[in-house]
């Protein structure tokens, strides 16, 4: 899939480019397959623990899948950042240069193309998706703190919160240091770790058949 998305190099010294659409599709399909395998693996490896059927657990159960979706979408937006080298567009945080909303956010026509092809818009979206995901996970952790979770589920929730802030820190570091390959690679790997933890939490909270 990635090979089919390779674009021809205009000159002998130019770097080969990959279509951001193919890159995102490749990453997304890999993550989807990974989550399916991980879910099945956890089902076979972990002893299921029944949790009380109370309102707080029911709310967390639904929200856990929302967290997992938010992490997945944020990671997918990161593929567009990588494909367009959008991490090199504005290397400051929290503002983009001196502005909260840059002037070149909607310069492409038609407007929808900015979301997928304008490096400024792609970076802007990834920033705010990441921030929203951290806020969502923080809220989830706060709700889980008051719920009657079993110890293994609580460990998973605590690790999820810690990794969310760790991944955000990695992302900001990648941006401020002009995207060095080792740091960027760790940041990309961090998205998979975060997705794994979100899936583990959802797996722990799943409704089990009554014995």
TrEMBL record:
The keyword Amino-acid biosynthesis does not apply. Its main location: membrane. GO terms for cellular component: mitochondrial inner membrane. PANTHER family: CYTOCHROME C OXIDASE ASSEMBLY PROTEIN COX15, CYTOCHROME C OXIDASE ASSEMBLY PROTEIN COX15 HOMOLOG. It comes from the Eukaryota. Pathway: Porphyrin-containing compound metabolism; heme A biosynthesis; heme A from heme O: step 1/1. GO terms for biological process: heme A biosynthetic process. InterPro entries: COX15/CtaA_fam, HemeA_Synthase_type2. This is Cytochrome c oxidase assembly protein cox15-like protein. It is found in: Membrane.
């Amino acid at each position: 899939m990635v090979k089919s998305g390779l674009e021809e190099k205009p000159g002998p010294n130019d770097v080969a480019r990959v279509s951001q659409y193919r890159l995102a599709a490749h990453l997304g399909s890999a993550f989807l397959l990974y989550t399916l395998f991980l879910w099945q693996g956890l089902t076979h490896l972990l002893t299921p623990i029944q949790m009380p059927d109370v309102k707080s657990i029911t709310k967390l159960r639904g929200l856990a899948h929302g967290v997992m979706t938010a992490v997945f979408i944020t990671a997918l937006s990161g593929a567009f950042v990588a494909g367009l080298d959008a991490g090199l567009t504005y290397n400051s945080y929290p503002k983009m240069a001196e502005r909260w909303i840059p002037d070149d956010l909607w310069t492409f026509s038609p407007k929808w193309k900015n979301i997928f092809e304008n490096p400024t818009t792609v970076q802007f979206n990834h920033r705010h998706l990441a921030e929203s995901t951290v806020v969502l996970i923080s809220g989830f952790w706060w709700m889980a703190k008051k719920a009657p979770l079993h110890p293994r589920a609580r460990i998973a929730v605590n690790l999820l919160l810690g990794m969310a802030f760790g991944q955000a820190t990695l992302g900001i570091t990648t941006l401020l240091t002009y995207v060095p390959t080792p740091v960027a690679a760790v940041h990309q790997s961090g998205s998979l770790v975060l997705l794994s933890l979100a899936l583990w939490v959802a797996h722990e909270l799943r409704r089990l058949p009554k014995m």
